[in-house]
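forwarding from the other thread:

> can someone predict this with NAP?

sure thing
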Amino acid sequence: MNRPFRLAINGYGRIGRSLLRAIHASPLGAQVEIVAINEPAALETMAYLTRYDSTHGVFPGDVAIDDDHLRVDGRPIRISHATTPEDVDWRALDLDLVVECSGRYSKRPDLERFLAAGCPRVLVSQPCANAEAIDRTIVQGLNQQTLDGSERLVSNASCTTNAVVPVLDRLHRAFGVDRAFITTLHSVMNDQPLIDGYNHPDLRRTRSAMQSIIPVSTGLAHGVERLLPELRGRVDAKAIRVPIVNVSTIDLTVTLRHDVDAAGINALMAAAAAELPDIFGYCDHPSASIDFNHDPHSAVIDASVTRCNGGRLANLLIWFDNEWAFANRLLDVATHWCAVAHTARRP
Ligand SMILES: NC(=O)c1ccc[n+]([C@@H]2O[C@H](COP(=O)([O-])OP(=O)(O)OC[C@H]3O[C@@H](n4cnc5c(N)ncnc54)[C@H](OP(=O)(O)O)[C@@H]3O)[C@@H](O)[C@H]2O)c1
């Protein structure tokens, strides 16, 4: 490939903007050119929130506006403000990939509207409604090698799935996981109101995000079992939103088929971090969630709090920056998928 992959972003919120920043910050970003962004907000506001980010800081580059373009370090990005895929002229953009970051499309018929409107491939920034909704769900570090370039719709799973699945996979291969219970303590998101409001069908998501610890519904267990079918029927999960703006943690409890102690689990996780340094992080000093803000690892094992009770009941704590790590995984999967698709097309 002698030109960068041509990419568009649909939905320029927390994840869409994090993706643009990840492309700007990462060496992998050289393989990608963002040619278009579709987002309902005004261009001036998009430029403002590109430049200033309360969580990730001031953008380390030049951001400007020029007619209907956002210019980042002088490079033009075509901006549209449609709320339906049919209202964007994707065909004219000669794209390799659209990254769907609005969170509004998770069923196959809805996602196929992007294909019908001229998008060659769509990478979705959330788990899809069911296995049939998507050609493949990819977690970098687990199964990205299964992409063969024939796919048109791929899901990048969720930030939580990206954090827990590589850890569960390692635990299962080393010690045999009999049962797993995953409790996610997740920072607030834009689907919650700042103070009580009628903005979500899930009653708990009508409550003030900054005033309460709020249990919310989650399809995480199904998502994990789809990626690790050997654990089907053995995983359950609970998700709790906590009033911080970024970085989340997973409290993972497993029963194992072989005896192990905390040192054995930590040695396994340290080896994983050495083998896949972009995916696993490892820390063994006293930490708080904010220490992991802007950390690109999918999962950072906090070895200082790993516990084993009686040899086969184990508990681990996993930190992850739900925005920045996930945006970097979108970039990993986007570049890998485009490269595989490009190679597959060659005679
Ligand atoms: N935030 C995280 O930590 C995180 C991590 C991993 C995955 N995700 C997933 O990524 C997706 C986006 O999350 P987010 O946190 O970035 O949400 P967000 O901040 O609300 O961003 C979504 C953006 O998409 C825009 N939008 C709404 N409808 C659209 C449409 N039809 N076409 C184009 N743009 C549209 C929204 O505009 P309006 O505000 O005007 O509606 C908003 O600016 C969700 O599926 C979420 O589950 C989020």
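The longest helix spans residues 324-345. thats all i got for now
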